[in-house]
Design goal:
alpha/beta, Double Stranded RNA Binding Domain, pyruvate-formate lyase- activating enzyme, 18 strands, 40% helix, binds S-adenosylmethionine, binds iron/sulfur cluster
């Protein structure tokens, strides 16, 4: 346990999170009792003194400038004198790591300089530095263009059951069946009105991602109606990618795949999360490993340009052995993309609120699992192409998208790097409007179907604002 005393507001978030890398329990405090470890800041005109006490006695201190990075670094260094950090990402908390590299590349720093900066100014470990650079350079090659085009995200907030780790704004389709028809009616209306606005403003859509939830939870007819509407507006030659997150194998049928193929979708996600039946049961997926293999066989028949499979490392009941089996099995299917997440304990999830029911892997086990993933991916021609970290991610690791050569997903890179306009339709998405190079605003959509329907006018107003029509 460590207490953080006298921390200015502007530094509290970073101080808490950096301290947690060294001490599991870090707490802001006003108390003056001097037991255990305490961090204290004293600010003078143009410098800060960061002191570490133990039982009232000072054991180390650092002087830094008042600029945020410099204070964070001083805290990191002071804490490093008594404990080892649990993260290879140094002082990067609440920041997308690849973005830091892009900024340095924007400023024309050369690669060796960047490596030095990441090590000295951020305390990032060598392996992560190499990984971040590999991803950033790939992204610059693949997506640092077409800045005038728009990506569309269309959300379908229904799933066949709610997974215990998930906090996405989704509804159990069995419990909320009555909402599906009205939702799809409004969504189709929003699609039409948005495309009309795009026409007026002469904006080109070059990428579509239908996500959720699980878009294939809805019926084939509903899916067909939505895809037909989109088809009436788009020019397939303009699209560099068109994805649907089929996600759950228990929602995939031959008929739905025919519909998906008919309307020109090029990329489909079929997500096992794990190939262990024991794990799948514990996370409430309501499908088995066999269901995934069966669904994959049908998907393969349709020869999409790209199939993605999502996995999560660190799920309850998973062991190093069962994780290895999952990775081996998924790699042997040869999907074009494999996205490997590390479990994040999300506030609104069942796992977070019932932690005693779940047996979660420790940080060193996760580390071993991820080492295996990395090795297996590289041996089989899968290269990392996008990367992000989430709050409360186990072991402070990351999520990595892997792809076979030339099969990287444009949308996934764009959504993380935030240099492209993304217009989100339906429930749950967030539009990103680029104001100028490297500066954007987020415009979140409603998270509930009920709000979406009752406040539909506001949705269209937001679209107009996004497109500078009001
Ligand atoms: C938007 S979700 C939807 C995918 C789809 N509905 C499905 O479950 O197959 C995208 C991915 O995020 C990952 N994910 C969701 N919640 C997570 C969590 N708490 N920690 C780590 N990864 C998570 C899962 O791998 C999931 O497939
Ligand atoms: S992980 Fe996917 S299927 Fe599970 S509840 Fe979340 S969105 Fe739905």
């Amino acid at each position: 346990m460590i207490k953080l005393r006298n921390i200015p507001n502007r530094l509290q978030y970073d101080f808490m999170h950096i301290s947690k890398l060294f001490f599991k329990d870090a707490q802001l405090t006003d108390e003056t009792i001097d037991d255990g470890y305490v961090i204290e800041i004293v600010q003078n005109d143009d410098e800060m003194k960061i002191s570490l006490f133990f039982d009232g006695k000072i054991i180390n201190e650092r002087i830094s400038g008042i600029e945020k990075n410099s204070v964070k670094l001083a805290l990191y260094d002071v804490l490093s004198t008594v404990r080892e950090s649990k993260s290879e990402y140094g002082i990067l908390v609440g920041v997308r790591p690849v973005k830091v590299v892009h900024k340095l590349l924007d400023n024309n720093n050369d690669i060796e300089e960047i490596k030095l900066i990441l090590e000295k100014d951020y305390r990032i470990g060598t392996e992560k530095i190499n990984l971040l650079l590999e991803v950033a350079l790939k992204e610059r090659n693949l997506i640092f263009k077409d800045f005038d085009a728009i990506s569309l995200y269309i959300g379908i907030p229904f799933c066949p059951s709610i997974c215990t780790y998930c906090s996405f704004p989704s509804n159990d389709i069995n419990k909320k069946a009555k909402l599906v028809n009205p939702y799809m009616e409004y969504l189709i209306k929003e699609i039409k009105e948005t495309f009309e606005l795009l026409k007026i403003t002469n904006r080109r859509v070059d990428n579509i991602y239908i996500g959720g939830g699980t878009p294939t939870s809805i019926s084939n007819e509903q899916l067909g109606m939505m895809l037909k509407t989109i088809d009436e507006y788009i020019n397939p030659d303009d699209l560099n990618e068109y994805t649907i997150e089929a996600g759950r194998p228990d929602t995939i049928t031959y008929g739905k795949l025919e519909t998906i193929k008919k309307y020109g979708i090029t990329r489909i996600c079929l997500n096992p999360q794990s190939m262990s039946d024991k794990v799948l049961e514990k996370i409430g997926r309501n499908h088995t490993r066999e269901d995934i293999l069966d669904a994959y066989k049908i998907v393969e028949e349709f020869k999409f340009n790209s199939v993605n499979m999502d996995l999560i490392v660190g799920l309850p009941e998973d062991t190093i052995e069962s994780l290895k089996t999952t990775i081996d099995e998924v790699v042997s299917l040869r999907p074009e993309n494999i996205t490997v997440h590390t479990l994040a304990i999300k506030k609104a999830s069942h796992i977070k609120n019932n932690q005693e029911e779940y047996n979660l892997a420790k940080s060193d086990e996760i580390s071993k699992m991820l080492l295996y993933v990395e090795k297996k991916m590289s041996e089989n021609g899968y290269e990392p192409y996008y990367l992000y970290r989430q709050k409360n991610i186990l072991g402070n690791f990351e999520n990595i998208g892997y792809a076979l050569k030339e099969k990287e997903s444009i949308y996934n890179m764009r959504i993380i790097e935030e240099r492209h306009n993304i217009l989100a339709l339906g429930v749950g998405g967030v539009s990103k409007k680029i104001i100028e190079y490297d500066y954007f605003i987020r415009i979140p959509n409603f998270r509930s179907v009920e709000d979406y329907i009752s406040r539909f006018d506001e949705i269209i107003d937001r679209k107009k604002k996004f497109l500078n029509l009001t």
